[in-house]
Amino acid sequence: MNRGTEGVDRRPPEGLLRRAILPVVVVLGLVIAGIMVVTAQPTVLFEAEGAFGPVRVLERPDGLRELYIGEGRSRQSAVYPEVPRRLVLDYTRVAMIGPALVASDARVLFVGLGGGAMPSYLQRVRPELRMEAVEIDPVVVDAARAHFGLSTGSRLQVHIDDGRALVEAAEPGRWDLIVLDAFSDTDIPPALTTRQFLEAVRRALAPDGFVVGNLPTSADEYAAMVATYRTVFPSVARLEVARRLQHVVLASPLPDALGDDRLAAAAAAWPDPDRAGFD
How far is 109 from 107, CA to CA, in rounded Å? Predict the structure, then answer.
């Protein structure tokens, strides 16, 4: 008896269908992921040999420019050139408590320039500040000018020199604020961690001045550096950098200069509160 084939379900078993489709889905996923990885690679804008290894400037697809010095992975600077009033790195926002504590026309020294993110930001937010920066590597200065929008002039002078030597040679009371920004997660210049250097910083400060330092809490030297600050300065405060193994250390030659009320008042009066990180 011929039963025919009409009405017979010819679909393959469901499990077999899943096994046939799964490799195709996996391959497509890998192809898409590969395309995304390729397109997300940064562009190398600048690369040259500096005093302490290669100096590289990378640009991400979203326009973020990053500065790397030496062989480490730690970023020295990160800037959106089209948005100069945006401080990208968390610690730089917290460090603005220093400029918030001094007069609008204060004398400020940055020890360590990198891409110049903080001075460039302050040129727009506090244009009356009289700023100087010292950077030991001329290649870094060239990169900052060419790729990070660093603009120098009467309100921002850059010295190509050893930061410790410049501070030690300064006349007493030359600056109202000194920002120590020569440290990274993987590179801490030993010459800038000593008691002798911090004593030179104190001499170079005005009697009512402030020093701001960026300290990685993961560094072996961290506890010793904090102790050295407390030995040299009567007033020391540590500000936590959210989501980072970093503290911003704030110190003053004056006793009781860093009370909570004073810090809160300075933060509240900052002209760009939405972009600062010391709340």
Answer: 7
pLDDT digits 0-9 by tens, 163-205: 999 999 999 999 999 999 987 766 678 888 899 999 999 999 9
Bridge partners, residue 67, by sequence: 57, 77
Q: How far apart are CA 213 and CA 106, in angstroms?
A: 18
55, 62, 81, 113, 116 from 138: Cα distances, Å: 11, 28, 21, 10, 13
3-state DSSP call for residue 236? strand
Number of residues written out for the chain: 279
Query: What is the Cα gyration radius of the chain?
Result: 26
* Rounded (10°) angle between helices 195-204 and 222-232: 40
Structure tokens at 231: 């030995």
Residue written as tokens 């006349």?
A: 171
Task: Render pLDDT for 208-244 as a digit per residue (tens, 0 to 9).
Answer: 999 999 998 888 889 999 999 999 999 999 999 988 8
- If phi > 0 it is left, if psi is from -120 to 50 it is alpha, else beta; for residue 274 that is alpha
What is the per-residue pLDDT across 16-71, written as a single tens digit (0 to 9) for each?
445 545 454 444 454 444 444 445 799 999 999 999 899 999 999 999 999 999 88
Sign of the alpha-carbon dihedral angle for 41, 47, 49, 53: negative
